[in-house]
Design a protein that fits this description.
The protein is mostly helical. It has one domain. The chain contains 9 helices and no strands. Helix 6 runs antiparallel to helix 7. The radius of gyration is 17 Å and the shape is globular.
Amino acid sequence: MSLSNALSYLTVFPIPFKKHLPLNRSVHFFPLVGAGMGSLLVLAFLAFQAILPGWLACAATVALLEGMTGGIHLRAVAELLDGRRTFPGSGFAPKPEYHWRGIAAAVLVYFVKVNGLAHMRPDWQLFAVLLAPILGRSSQALGIIFSKHRLETSRGPKDPAVRRRQKRALFFTAALLCCMGLFPWKAAAILTVGYFLSVVSAYRLLNRRMDGLTVQTLGAVAEFAEAGFIATCSALS
């Protein structure tokens, strides 16, 4: 099933990746996987708040978010800064090698999320925790749909099944972005516009630098989208 590929690619669940099914056949599940992750994260955040001080509860929640992905998106940030690249569908290189720039970038992204969540209005925190994984996974779906990459095996007409899945992915993304309505309308408008501007500009810049879409680009843009969203929520609140 294409759902198993989406879960295998986006989460830490030990589900074998079916290489005979291209990743772009799973793209419509990406926003839904993000919604599931966000729902679990809300429950975890409430539990952490009950037993931990505020900043530690936020740190544990962000750590759980990263743990749900097996840390692959922070790894993508580190490898992106170190100049490494692999292409979608092939996964990461088998032996990770990190340098100080990549490690510093991953740590910085983590602390931006934690501090943004900790200094946010308390009544906005649950909304941010719910939406951050949705925006991260949706950004990956948008990257696969609109970027030039090596998932395309021919220059002929696109597979009709892939086209249908891409339309579903856009519909699910748009429907889940309605959750922005949980915020006051002015804040929701700023957050939505900021999200799309940051995702589009990040993909345009990184795809140009990396000669097409890479695994590192997908993971890093997801991290940047989540961190930027949380930081903007904190600033607006």
